[in-house]
Design brief:
The chain has ten helices and 20 strands. By secondary structure, the chain is an alpha+beta fold.
């Protein structure tokens, strides 16, 4: 029966073509991983293609990803890339059973895409970064060609119409598939091993780093700065819980011994290059500073407070001959560059106005974690992270806002972004069901470099009522607050607002995070049984 035979043929082709394509893709990625381990782990095709996708994604989509997936946004992206690759690989595998060269050519196209992405990355080292994609594509194309050649149709028995009966030989294919899988697994494992070894120097340099005592230690946190309220955010955020929002698919692992920082550009009369040891030999300052991400929605989690140790940035700039615009300086923008090519732009006037802007080397008493910028990151209190908190910093260039647009500004974010006054309700949580009676409402409020002077709470459409404020640590840290509420049965909306040190009351006008941070008042709905 020709119809049955044709249907069986389609199923048989899919049963062999799909695994052939997936195996070829796996081989390509494994070999690419091996070559990346030899040249530069960050040049792996998934990493460079993922980075290119991030760079070309509209700001609103990036903001949605951060809001929806949080710190897992990069994992979701990588899984999405692999899923798309798997679907295409299945199609190429089925195609290769009939047209081996066409299927192999399709794999080579992916090598071209990876090569283009590698060469377009801001931290690209040139053609060397293209080698993983090229090698992986060649290996994948060869694997698919060989696997397809081993899957041949079984000729139809004498007296049966048709070229075959819809059955494809599996013996040769399975043998070839086994060898291919073994080679791919071995290549991938060796690539992982090599990549790990390349990072051992960075790990060892961090583990061996001895932090000097600060010349200017942070004052002791006042006893009344930490409220004893269940559910409230701790005053100091543990390193493991500190938010991470960046574009790095692979966290840079920089060896402290080879790290260098260059200061140069417009108005720099004495360009400087520093090693980490030279920075550590300088007088260090220690400060409690709250950082906030511009992608933080009203009531969002992308904020944290830590004790930072570092070099005062103003001192380094003045030694290089830099003056702020208010003192006749030529540059009004400081562009910080990361080892992965990220660029952030800060107003020179803000950096040099006396606030505790620093190049931080430690966080909460230990060297910076790799996720948070080891060996050195920049901090400028009062500015959102995307214009101030460059991680893995390696270059500082003085320029002007008219002459250069950093990474996020090119994507329609604002050039200047002081942190907006905000308050958040930590407890009770949204849709909680507290018992009737006394319920403690509590949370945090922040307006870095201005401080918080008042927090008010409103129940439903009732009057605003003052909350009790914890003792203020500094104007650069958040401030805890609480208020007891006599909860009555029914549904209730709790809203909070803050007043900063300038007397400005937190606006009720809602605004998106783009272009310069979200605004509005945080509220939660609870039901009292």
């Amino acid at each position: 029966m020709p119809g049955v035979s044709s249907f069986r043929n389609i199923l048989s082709r899919a049963a062999l073509g799909a695994p052939a394509g997936v195996l070829a893709a796996f081989t390509a990625l494994a070999v690419a991983e091996l070559v990346a381990g030899l040249v530069r782990p960050a040049a792996g095709p998934v990493t460079v293609v993922g980075g290119a996708v991030i760079d070309r994604t509209p700001a609103a989509v990036k903001d949605f990803a951060i809001r929806t997936f949080g710190v897992n946004d990069k994992t979701v992206l990588q899984l999405g890339i692999l899923a798309v690759l798997a679907v295409i690989a299945v199609g190429l595998g089925i195609l290769a059973l009939s047209h081996r060269r066409a299927g192999a050519a399709g794999v080579l196209l992916f090598g071209i895409v990876g090569t283009a992405a590698a060469l377009s990355r801001p931290d690209s080292t040139g053609i060397v970064d293209a080698l993983p994609s090229i090698a992986g594509a060649l290996a994948g194309a060869l694997a698919l060609f060989v696997l397809a050649s081993k899957a041949v149709p079984v000729p139809a028995p004498a007296g049966v119409d048709g070229e075959d009966v819809g059955v494809w030989s599996r013996r040769g294919f399975l043998a070839a598939a086994g060898v291919t899988a073994g080679v791919a697994v071995s290549a991938g494992a060796l690539g992982r091993f090599l990549a790990g070894r390349r990072g051992q120097g960075a790990v060892a340099s961090r583990e061996g780093l001895v932090l000097p005592a600060p010349a200017s230690p942070a004052p002791a946190i006042p006893a009344g700065a930490r409220l004893k309220v269940a559910g409230i955010s701790p005053f100091t955020t543990p390193n493991a819980d500190f938010y991470r929002v960046d574009t790095a698919l692979t966290v840079p692992q920089v060896d402290a011994g080879t790290w260098r920082l260059r200061i140069h550009g417009k108005g720099v009369t004495r360009p400087r290059t520093y090693t980490l040891d030279q920075l550590l030999a300088r007088p260090l300052i220690e400060r409690d500073i709250t950082l906030t991400c511009v992608s933080n929605e009203v009531g969002g989690p992308y904020i944290g407070n830590a004790r930072w140790l570092g070099v005062r940035l103003t001192d380094l700039l003045r030694e290089a001959g830099v003056r702020p615009p208010s003192q006749g300086g030529e540059a009004d923008q400081l562009v910080a560059r990361s080892v992965d090519g990220m660029t952030l732009g800060s107003p020179v006037e803000d950096v040099m106005d006396g606030r505790d802007a620093m190049l931080a080397v430690a966080m909460n008493g230990e060297p910076l974690p790799f996720d948070h910028g080891f060996p050195v990151r920049m901090l400028v209190p009062g500015l959102y992270g995307y214009v101030s908190a460059c991680k893995w910093i390696t270059d500082i260039e003085l320029t002007t806002f008219d002459a250069y647009d950093p990474y996020w500004v090119k994507r329609k974010w604002a050039r200047k972004a002081p942190i907006k006054t905000q308050a958040r309700i930590d407890t009770p949580k949204p849709f909680a069901r507290p018992a009737a009676g006394t319920v403690t409402i509590a949370g945090v409020a922040w307006a870095q470099h201005r401080g918080i002077t008042r927090v008010e709470v409103r129940i439903d459409d009732g009057p605003w009522q003052d909350a009790d404020l914890a003792v203020q640590d500094t104007v650069d840290t958040w401030r805890q607050w609480s208020r007891p509420w006599q909860a009555t049965p029914g549904g209730h909306t709790i809203t909070v607002r803050a007043t900063d040190g300038t007397g400005a009351v937190q606006t009720e006008e809602r605004a998106r995070t783009i272009p310069d941070g979200a605004s509005g008042r945080h509220s939660v709905f609870v039901t009292v049984p």
